[in-house]
Structures are given as structure tokens and as C-alpha cells.
Amino acid sequence: MEKSINAIRFLGLDMVNEANSGHPGIVLGAAPVMYQLFTKHLKGNPSASKWFDRDRFILSAGHGSALLYSTLHFAGYDLTKQDLKDFRQIDSKTPGHPEYGHTDGVEATTGPLGQGISNAVGMALAEKHLRNRYNKKDLKVVDHYTYTLCGDGDLQEGVALESMSLAGHLGLERLIVLFDSNDVQLDGPTDDAVSDDIKQKVQSMNWDYYFVDDANDLAALDEAINAAKSSDKPSFIEIKSVIGFGSPVAGTSKAHGAPLGKEAADEMKKKVGYPLEMFYTPAEVYEDFLNTFKQRGENAHIEWQETMDEYAELYPDAFNELENMIEGNISIDFDKILKHPEIGASEATRASGGKALELLSQAIPEMVGGSADLSVSTKVKGLDGNFTKALPTGRNVNFGVREHAMAAMVNGMTLHNLKAFSGGFFIFSDYMKPSIRLAALSNIPSVFIFTHDSVGVGEDGPTHEPVEQLAVFRSTPGIVTMRPAHGGEVNHALRFALSQKRTPSAIVLTRQNVTVTHEVDYDDFLQGAYVAKDAKQYDAILLATGSEVELAMDAAAYLESEKGITVRVVSMPSMELFEAQSDKVKNRVLPSDKKVLAIELGSPQMWYKYADDVLGLTTFGKSGNGAEVIKSFGFTKENVADRLLKLL
User: What angle do CA 42, 45, 49 make, to 5 degrees?
Assistant: First the structure.
């Protein structure tokens, strides 16, 4: 055991020294925790690392990636010694912080502190929901735990406390947090910044609390983890460790985020009789992990497959449903479920979204989500009742006023095979942006639904009226932002979002009613922009999105009747989808020989790529009647006509 723990320590230390970059402190301090968790408790199969019923381990303290990579290497995952030597190098499998989908065995993209814990809460919620929904009598097809290792910094981030509060309230008993409690952070001792009583804090949030006074005490670690696994609450294990254990700077912030150097590493190795060779890996350590973690996991995987075979025979419908969820397959007739609204119908797109969500949730059992204490306004709500301790099969999650945790938990639920979605006011996407960025970076299909998308919010005023948020989302790589013009586009946006396997979506909806001015089919919507009103001969183009498409149509009619000017109207629900089209498609929709005026109740800058002029917003909003606020900013058919005429 001691040799294996030292091997994890020194392999991680060599990685940091070779890269001349990284965080050695947690590697040296928390290696015993990783060793004991993997060899005695964690259920996983490196030969089938995506096996559904594996335990999930998330390194919330993502700066300790060298510790994770070192452990995964010995455990048998697809990480070679050369991969470890390439730590923090361009295009390597071992980036500076763990990235989901990039490195075998990594369950979540972590590094921004607090995110990993919150992802773990989402995963534990998904596990509890699926366990209670699919397990039958003695056939346990969902039967695993979620573990996360965090540090002091994680617990100072608001997102972690938001999600932990909800985890305790919901009684997520298969969630176990391992707290590497070393009383040191980058700027010095933690007591420079915090004096919370962590035991009282977690217990007040309905968690069980356990204490291990020495990370090197493997028996005490075992006892605490076993007790946590038997608890009926989420469990928090505080483990006192020494940052940079055994190094010349042990117990100080100097051990946190800078290489210790080969000379210091050699001295440490000499003290414990470990070979000085860089990246030395004893054969006995591989054997240790093979005989414990790997063998146990392979046996558990075989048993699970046998259970699934029996389950398929006895419960074929439930088996097919679960199998489709695991594989991410959605085979429904969207056109049959979602009918295009009639021309002339008037409805807020948030209301259209709520209706479509309900119909889709009836057809897609893995859809689980909810709003941040706003479902009455957003209309974003799951089916089958609220998820609670008493009703874990409920598919509506009352996230409470916890936007940041909601987004991070949706990511965790998505990573755990659910079609997870969230709802909130668009202005509060500011609280969610870090988690949404990680969804994009992770290439996972989380669905983020926002309402109250503009100054049309009205009376609540500028604090609640988004202006720059659309530009922020559109400038974020890897996410598709959709702002539907009416209920037909809403249906298509949800269809797109739920059909994705690697792309997160943001769907941005109105508070105020909009009129269905035209029909659109799914293929045209997928272009990102399409012609909503056309003529054989036209003088210019009005380009709009969301509620401003109706304004563009009104302005087009006004220009034709009052000014003798014929215009094409183009709806652009998604810049990202449009940018993915060929030049031929782009030029067909927006010919370069025509003047273009873009119209949107938001920041104008990004529209200049497509338009000669933009009617947008360069100030914050106002408090007043929504229609009057919109009018006060010049969003009238007359002003649109005047702006366009100046281009001709």
C-alpha cells in the first residue's frame, strides 16, 4: 500500500516537474485518499470506462489533475506513461485541468472551483431518480455512488454551497464528498479568509459529517467511507491532510501551485527509498490496482450485464427505455408531437415553450429539469411531480433561487445520461455563465431555456432587462443560441436541442406576446436564417430575430404600402447555425448586392457582420410598460422604415 501511494505521489510530482507547471501540493497530500477510494471502494471498469452503472468520481479540485492522471494510469485507463510525460503540453491527453471527453476516466471538466461538487450533485440526483424508476425487486440495474474530492477553495465558492444545500434538502444519499482539508490555499492559510465551522455548516444543510484526522490513516478512511455509503443522507468526509506532504515546503502555500523541482523530488524519494528515475512506475503498483480496483470492477460489470439480460427478459419495455437513454437515442416523431401554430396566433414564446416542453416530456422519459423558483413565469417545468426525498421519480426539480447551481447540476445530470434542462430569466444567465461555458467546453448537450429576453420585460426595469447577454452567448464557442420568432420556431429550437449529443443549447424566449406571421419548416430553421417574406423583385432586406421578426414584417408591409419599397424579411433564429452553412446558402438568404438593416432588442455589434446598419440597444433598459419601453427605443415600423430608407 505504501509503495502504491508513493508511486501515485511521485509520478504526479514528476509530471509537474517535467512540465515545469502544475500543482504538487494536493498530489502529495491527497494521494492516500485516491488510493484508498480506488482500491477499496470505487466501482469502475477501465476496459469499459463508460459502463453505465459505474461509480462516478469527480475531481472538483481540478488543479490537482496530476493526482487524477497518475491514479487513472495505475488503475488501467487509457493513459500511457508518454501521456503523463506530456502533461500540460499542447494537444496532449493530460491538459492542465481535467476535461471530459478528452481524457479516459475523466467524468467532468473541472478546475473552476465549486463546479465539480455541483456536477456531482446533479449526477447523484440523476442516479437516485433512475434507481427509483428502473430497479425492480432484486434486479438492481442502477446501483452506484457519486464521489467527489474537493479542497478548501471549492467550499468558498457560492456555487458549491448552493448545490450542497439542495443536495441535503433532496436527500441524495449516494453522494459522498471527500474534503481534502489542509488549511492552506494559494494566498496563505485559509484562516486569512474563512472561519466557518464546516461541521456545523454541512450538518445544517442535512448532510452527515465524518472526520478523519490524518489522510495517511487508511483504516480511518475506510471506516468513514463505509459509514457514508450506509447513510440515508449525502455525506461529507473531512480529511485532514498536509499540503505538499513530505516536501521542504509542506504545510505552506508554496506547495500549492508551483513545481518543487527535481532536487526536492529526489530528496523526498531518497527518504522513503524510492528510485530516483523520473517517471519510475513499479510493476507491483500496477498489480495492486489490477487485483483490487480493476478486477472488482470487471466482475461487477459482468454481474450487471447478467442482471440486464434478466431485466430485458422480464421487463422488456423498461429495458428498452433504459437502453435508449444510456445510448442517447431519441426516436420520436417531432412533427407529430409538435404542431406548427396557425398564422395569426398570438402568444408569448415562453408560453409556447412551456406547452412544447410538456408534450415532449410525455414522449421522452429521460427529460428532467425545472426552473430557479420561476416556473410560474418561465413555464419551464418537468413532469410527474416534484423530485423530492419522498418522490424521487418526479421529473420537476425545484432548484430554488440557485441559478449557478442549477446550471452546474444540469451539466451533471446531462453527464449522467438525462436530457436535462433549466429555466430562468435571461438576465440571470449572468449567474449561470461559468457553468454554461463548461457545458460548451465539455461538448455536452445541456439545455438552457431563458425567458424575459429583452427590454420588453417592462415594469421590472433595467435590472431585469437583458441587453448584452445575447452577444455574450453568441461569442461563446461550442454553444448554439436560438431566439425563436414565434411558436413554430420554438418547437424547432427544442427539437434541435433535444436531438444533440455533443452541443449545448440556449433557447431565449419572450415575456410578451408575438404573432405568428409565417410558417417555417425544420430544415429551413436548421439553416439558422431563412426567408420569412419574399418577393421576386425587392429593394433591401430586413434581418431580425425573436420578437423583432414581427416588427420587421410590419415594417415591410408599411414600406410597401406607404413608401413603395419592397423588402425581403429574413428571420435569423441562430447565428451559430447560420455560420455553419455553405457560402451558397448564406448568399441565397442574404445576397451581397442588397442593403441589409438588422433589428434586435440587444447589443448591435455582432450584427454588422451581416448588416449595413443595425437598430439595436447601446444602453440599459427602462422601467415602464413593456410596449412603451420598446417604442421608446425606436422599435417602431416607422423608425425601421426611416432607417432602411437611409441605406437606399
Answer: 110
How far, in Å, CA of 530 to CA of 543, rounded?
10
Residue spans per domain, the chain: 2-299, 334-515, 528-645
Question: Pick from 526, 547, 540, 412: which is nearest to 466 by CA?
Answer: 547
Q: How far is CA 303 from CA 53, 222, 297, 309, 413, in A?
A: 11, 24, 10, 10, 25
Contact status, residue 43 vs residue 146, Cβ threshold 8 Å: no
Model confidence band, residue 428 (pLDDT cutoffs 50, 70, 90): very high
Q: What integer pLDDT is reported at residue 331 of this predicted model?
A: 87
Q: Who's near 11: CB < 8 A, 6+ residues apart?
A: 70, 73, 74, 84, 279, 281
pLDDT for residue 443: 98
Catalytic residue among 403, 548, 576, 600: 403
Name the 3-class secondary structure at 192: helix
The predicted pLDDT at position 137 comes to 87
Is this model's pTM higher than 0.85 or not? Answer: yes
Q: Which pLDDT score, from 0 to 100, does residue 324 have? A: 96
Question: Do 528-645 and 2-299 have the same topology in CATH?
Answer: yes
**For residue 261, what pLDDT band results from cuts at 50, 70 and 90?**
very high
- Measure the CA angle with vertex 69, ends 66 and 72; round to 5°: 150
Among residues 445, 438, 378, 387, which one has the least CA distance to residue 408?
A: 438
- Mean pLDDT for 531-536 is 96
pLDDT of residue 138: 86
Cα separation, 351 vs 507, whole angstroms: 13
pLDDT tens digits, 14-42:
999 999 999 999 999 999 999 999 999 99
403 labelled catalytic: yes
- Provide the Cα torsion 475, 476, 478, 483; round to 10°: -70
Q: Which residues of 410-430 are buried (b: 16+ CB within 10 A; e: fewer)?
A: bbbbbbbbbbbbbbbbbbbbe
For domain 2-299, say whether CATH 3.40.50.970 is its number. Answer: yes
Task: Give the model confidence (pLDDT) of 322-337 as tens digits.
Answer: 999 999 999 899 999 9
Contacting residues for 82 by C-beta, under 8 A, at least 6 apart: none
Q: Which residues touch 121 (CB under 8 Å, ≥6 apart)?
A: 163, 164, 166, 167, 172, 175, 405, 408, 409, 412
What does CATH list as the number for 528-645? 3.40.50.920
From 3.30.70.260, 3.10.20.30, 3.90.1170.20, 3.40.50.970, which CATH number describes the 334-515 domain?
Answer: 3.40.50.970
